[in-house]
Design a protein that fits this description.
eight-stranded parallel β-sheet, 23% helix, seven-stranded antiparallel β-sheet, 603 residues, alpha/beta, single chain
């Protein structure tokens, strides 16, 4: 498995034919750049620039040696907006910081004037942060970008009766998706490979195309029975339609070549869409999204050229719309936020429809691609991040960690109100792109383990789901307040809920960093001191941290039956009372950790 992973890491580089054909604006660097040193960190802030999809932070000992700060995500270095907390620095060392605007992910503009800052040495005293929650404010709608969508292994696995780790794959994948819907309110599922040969949708007999949607029907019947809708990713290529069937990806052999006939590809897409409308009715299918291919800007997923993929998009979009103009189609479903400008510029010139834009990123909050949509005249298109997560790497231990759960909180908070969906990739560790899992805790992408236990990222979503409908303003003071330490405050009729976390994007510190611990005081002026406070923790070593729990009871590659029961007992987050001091209460937040503080009237 390690050899497969190494081979995969080498193959996911951006395509060699990635060329810049779309002119981009020459954006000014941000104004009002500041850099403030704190214990173990420097917080860089700036004024946003119209037209920027993101920003790159540069650092060096002097202006002649500024380089982008790398937070070790394995993906984009750009971030969507201020502030940025640098914890890759060395305490006591003075640096120069500058910020450059990013008009499109493959380039960044010139940096502005640099500013100086020095991260402070830890003197043994825990720095203090103060959060003031305006609980009496009218509040605004609290946006929930995790609700519209989640990712999954290819959905044909719902029908699989084989086992992984002694657990039946199809039954557990179905239960994992059901839990996403029932407990977290997720509405749609996006997955690869509806045209893969295991669904038997297409074959040619004596050169004549034959369609069979029986397996697709079984898949979507099961999904709709859970209460979920599919995001229909149009791919990969059926063997009998492929121009080069030898070009494949994944252990299950998904074919990545262009079609040998774009006309037959059009007819296949049209036949599928027409069948779905006939079977499920137009009112149902009008609520589905049709996404063209997956990550064609990576050579591993598309063996053709960029121009060939743009033609595939045109043909696919035309096929979908030929069934019903109201059906939604979009793309580019790209890695690392690539090809967004390319697709939009192409569609603007050809007249192809783009009802929504899809793209992916890992290790950072999603960029603000609305600027690209506005620039090309697609400002009303929806923005769907159809893959997102803490790392793009399979079998990375960070996927099982508390850090990844707190990272999810930061990303969802950043995305709220500026994207239509942020789909975590994926729901379950029943996921076999590089083969079936070799052990229970294997650094899998899933929010839930084989065996159906919640990982810290699932718990993070559960905490988010407990926020109320009205978002409340929060003001920050202190070392790292509003950057290292963030909060999301809410209210419903008889409860105030504030989710607070401590996180750096720097994955080299995913195991923790004592110097980043903060004593956080939450203040609720105007709230009756008699209201009771409780805390629900997501932190290393507490219930919900499966890595610590597994180590404590000596789990090997797979738990024993007795260990399954012990792990399940340790898998529920605990709610504990917290003492208030008048309008305030104080908690100590290690990095990484999060706490949901809830206030309720007595009684």
């Amino acid at each position: 498995m390690s050899n497969a992973k190494a081979d995969w890491d080498e193959r996911i580089a951006i395509r060699s034919d990635e060329t810049r054909a779309v002119p981009l604006p020459d954006l000014d660097p941000p104004a009002s750049v500041t850099a403030v040193g704190g214990v173990g960190q420097v917080t860089v802030d700036w004024s946003p620039v119209p037209g920027a999809v993101g920003y790159v932070i540069l650092r060096g000992p002097d202006d002649s040696s500024l380089e982008p700060v790398d937070h070790h995500s394995g993906d984009l270095l750009s971030v969507p907006g201020p502030p940025y907390v640098d914890t890759t620095c060395t305490a006591g060392t003075t640096y120069r910081y500058a910020v450059a605007s990013v008009p499109e992910v493959t380039v960044h503009g010139r940096p502005g004037a640099s500013v100086e800052a020095t991260p402070l040495v830890d003197n043994g005293n825990v720095p203090a942060v103060r959060l003031t929650v305006d609980a009496l404010a009218e509040g605004t709608e609290l946006h929930r970008p995790w609700v519209p969508m989640v990712g999954s292994e290819r959905l044909s696995q719902l029908l699989c009766e084989e086992s992984s780790g002694g657990r039946e794959i199809g039954a557990e994948l179905e239960q994992a998706l059901r839990r996403m819907h029932d407990e977290l309110g997720v509405r749609t599922v996006r997955a690869h490979a509806i045209f893969h040969d295991d669904t038997r949708v297409y074959r040619e007999v004596d050169g004549v195309p034959q369609y069979d949607f029986e397996v697709v029907d079984a898949i979507y019947d099961k999904l709709l029975g859970i209460g979920l809708r599919p995001v229909v990713e149009l791919g990969f290529m059926p063997r009998d339609l492929a121009s080069d069937p030898a070009r494949t990806v994944f252990e299950y052999g998904a074919i990545i070549s262009p079609p040998k006939s774009y006309e037959r590809w059009h007819d296949l897409v049209r036949a599928l869409v027409a069948h779905l409308v006939e079977r499920y009715g137009p009112d149902e299918v009008l609520g589905w999204d049709f996404e063209v291919w997956n990550e064609a800007n990576l050579e591993v997923f598309w063996s053709g050229s960029k121009a060939e993929w743009m033609h595939l998009y045109d043909v696919s979009a035309a096929a979908v719309k030929s069934v019903d103009e109201r059906l939604a189609v979009g793309g580019p479903s790209s890695a690392a936020a690539g090809w967004v400008d390319d697709l939009l510029a192409h569609a603007a010139s050809t007249g192809s429809p783009v009802d929504f834009v899809t793209t992916h990123t890992y290790g950072s909050p999603p960029l603000d691609v609305q600027a690209s949509l506005d620039r090309h005249g697609f400002g009303r298109a929806r923005i769907l991040w159809t893959e997102w997560g803490v790392t793009p790497r399979h079998f990375n231990p960070i996927n099982d960690s508390v850090f990844s759960g707190v990272f999810l909180l930061r990303g969802m908070r950043s995305a709220a109100g500026r994207v239509d969906a942020l789909a975590y990739w994926v729901a379950s560790d029943h996921f076999e792109e590089l083969g079936r899992p070799p052990r229970w805790l294997h650094g899998g992408f899933g929010l839930q383990t084989i065996g159906g236990l919640a990982k810290p990222r699932f718990h993070a979503m559960s905490l988010l789901s407990r926020l109320g409908p009205a978002e409340l303003p929060v003001a920050f003071e202190g070392d790292g307040g509003g950057g290292l330490v963030e909060a999301w405050a809410s209210r419903d009729r008889d409860r105030i809920a504030v989710l607070v976390w401590n996180l750096t994007l720097d994955q080299s510190k995913s195991g923790g960093a004592a110097e980043l611990t903060r004593d956080v005081t939450l203040s609720f002026p105007g709230v009756d001191p008699a209201w009771r406070a409780t805390a629900t923790w997501l932190a290393p070593g507490t219930p919900g941290d499966l890595v610590t729990a597994a180590a404590a009871i000596g789990v090997g590659d797979w738990p024993t039956e007795e260990q399954w029961a012990e792990l399940a007992a340790h898998n529920e987050l605990q709610v504990t009372p917290v003492e208030r001091d008048g309008a305030d209460l104080t908690v100590t937040l290690r990095m990484p950790s999060a706490v949901l503080v809830e206030l309720r009237p007595p009684g």
